[in-house]
Design goal:
heterodimer; A: mainly alpha; MetI-like fold; 2 domains; 13 helices; B: mainly alpha; elongated
Chain lengths: ~300, ~290
């Protein structure tokens, strides 16, 4: 087991390296160069030269690359061009609010998705199966900003149950009320994934011999599902939540824009609008590292909970 | 026993047909998609107004008999803009997927055929690309390249390369050990010919089936990027940018955001329904019969 985990960790290193190189190349692909993009068309030659020197763009490309790798490895991602804070500071500032939203969304997705997926598998090809498949496909089809806007129009503007803008009051109840819609938006999309994976995984498990044996021994349907089928059926669901992480980040960007909520998504959007390429590059590096870490952890967790996974 | 005999006797395409024809969700998807394609092809004939024609007197009018879906901030007819917007969405989705399919299949087949360290490295990178949020990747690329139709297509195509490469790679590894590939090699065919003529035709149907699911995600990414402001620049009507305008007027003109939202939802749903049914039909594990 430990050697499996180590191998998986070692495999992550070249991947990280390639991703960082890709980001380096992508950022250098900016038409013109970064200095003229940052300063705009009106910049004088002298200020362009100063900006290039500040960004290290006057160095040969291989030197730039080595500096880039050194900076990433030492956690120095530069300073935001608009706020002057370091990229790491900017991220830490909004991280709690993003984590709150993410945890709430994951809870909603699992609590709603699991039972629906199990019911769909038990009643295969019945109306409940088609309805749950349709519901989950609708969930998968919603771009997060579309579902967000519809939720906003219906529940905040029309019915007035929730605030239209995220309040920054310290009252915990008020905060919870403004968290509800964004969390529901992300949670319902996650639910769609969970329903699908639970359904197909439960269908696989329900066809196994040991389930037939248990049924022949007279186990009640409730006990059959809860004790016998669910344990094995849940394994893929754990990994889908891990794999959904990337999508969750993308969707949280849109959700935070719609509900005007501070967070990583809002940070990216702000960086984009103010052409803050240092912040954008830094965020891209942080996301790449997060995705690689979560991927690796998901793989290792899969090995931990499923004794059948072979450690080659 | 009889079932086995039947499944041998029925040829591959007609067995697939049997699987679809019993799936109501397949028909729902096919119908929806047919309508959307018709609407976008016939746009100049069925659009009641010019999508670009501004009418300052009729600004932000709610839905009426004259303007079925209301008018926007410049007095343009929302329904007509919606109909023309279908063209952009479908075109961007289709071209981006075609590019991603070509590049992704090449990467997948070459990596699978050559194998070894190259394969490991390529798949490691593709794994990360797969789990890296498509929206963020597209957003970064579009932001770096600048907003235009061409750059939008490039950005979306790049986000969809990894899934194609994965789907092309797995069968390549199985196929390269088959007798007919061995025979080709023994006859002295070069690797390019073996990959292109002997391996590609055997996996292309899997790839095409998956492409309708990924076209759904490409259209979703296009709409999201347009919404953020990185899509086709105005005044060209796109669903994402229409929703953006609707969002800015959300308190007093609900119709601006709602109708394009439903259009995106229905298009992506149609492709997902189709793709799902097709995948169920070719994947023997899910068929469960």
């Amino acid at each position: 087991m430990i050697s499996f985990a180590c191998k998986r960790l070692l495999l992550a290193i070249p991947t990280l390296f390639v991703m960082l190189t890709a980001i380096f190349v992508l950022v250098r692909l900016v038409p013109g160069d970064a200095a003229s993009v940052i300063l705009g068309d009106q910049a004088t030659e002298a200020s362009l030269r100063a900006m290039r020197a500040r960004l290290g763009l006057d160095q040969p490309i291989q030197v730039q690359y080595l500096h880039f790798l050194r900076d990433v490895l030492t956690g120095n991602l530069g300073r935001s061009l608009s706020s002057g804070r370091t990229v790491v500071q900017e991220v830490l500032l909004v991280l709690p609010s993003t984590i709150q939203l993410t945890l709430a969304a994951i809870t909603i997705g699992i609590v709603l998705g699991l039972p629906l997926g199990i019911l769909a598998a038990l009643g295969r090809n019945s109306w409940i199966d088609y309805v749950s498949r349709l519901v989950s496909l609708v969930g998968l089809s919603f771009p997060a900003f579309v579902s967000g806007i519809l939720l906003l129009i219906i529940f905040a503007i029309h019915l007035g149950w929730f605030p239209v803008l995220t309040s920054d009051s310290t009252d915990p109840l008020e905060r919870l009320r403004s968290l509800a819609l964004p969390a529901l938006n992300l949670g319902l999309i996650l639910m769609a994934y969970v329903v699908r994976v639970t359904r197909s995984s439960m269908l696989g498990v329900l066809g196994e011999d040991y389930i037939r044996t248990a049924r022949a021994k007279g186990v009640t349907p409730m006990r059959l599902v809860m004790r016998h089928a669910l344990r094995n059926g849940l394994i893929p669901v754990v990994t889908v939540v891990g794999l959904y992480f990337g999508t969750l980040i993308g969707n949280s960007v849109l959700t935070e824009i719609i509900f005007n909520r501070p967070g990583l998504g809002k940070l990216i959007f702000g960086a984009l609008n103010s052409r803050d390429y240092t912040l954008l590059e830094g965020l891209m590096i942080i996301f790449a590292i997060c995705v690689i870490v979560v991927n690796t952890l998901t793989d290792i967790t899969y090995g931990l909970i499923d004794p059948r996974v072979k450690y080659k | 026993m009889t079932i086995e005999v039947a499944s041998v006797a029925v040829s591959q395409p007609s067995r697939l047909w049997l699987v679809f024809s019993r799936n109501p969700l397949f028909w729902l998807g096919a119908l929806l998609l047919a309508i959307i394609i018709m609407v976008s092809v016939l746009a100049p004939l069925i659009a009641p107004h010019d999508p670009l024609e501004q009418n300052i007197v009729a600004r932000l009018e709610p839905p009426s008999a004259e303007f079925l879906f209301g008018t926007d901030n410049y007095g343009r007819d929302v329904l007509s803009r919606l109909i023309y917007g279908a063209r952009i969405s479908l075109m961007v989705g289709f071209v981006a997927i075609l590019i991603a399919m070509t590049i992704g299949c090449t990467i997948g087949i070459v990596a699978g055929y050559i194998g070894g360290a190259l394969d490991q490295l390529v798949m490691g990178v593709l794994d990360v690309m797969l789990s890296f949020p498509a929206l963020l990747l597209g957003l970064m690329i579009a932001a770096m390249l600048g907003a235009s139709l061409q750059n939008l297509i490039i950005a979306i195509a790049i986000t969809e390369i990894a899934p194609f490469a994965r789907v092309a790679r797995a069968p390549t590894i199985a196929l390269k050990q088959q007798d007919f590939v061995m025979a080709g090699r023994a006859l002295g065919f070069g690797p390019v010919r073996i990959m292109g003529v002997h391996i590609l035709p055997n996996l292309i149907s899997d790839v095409v089936v998956m492409s309708s699911l990924w076209m759904a995600s490409a259209i979703r990414t296009e709409a999201s990027l347009s919404f953020i402001g990185l899509g086709v620049p105005p005044p060209t009507p796109t669903w994402g940018s229409m929703i953006r305008e609707g969002f800015d007027n959300i308190l007093d003109a609900w119709w601006l955001a709602v109708f394009p939202s439903l259009a995106i939802l229905l298009t992506v749903l149609a492709l997902n329904l189709l793709g799902d049914a097709l995948r169920d039909a070719i994947d023997p594990k899910l068929r469960g019969e």
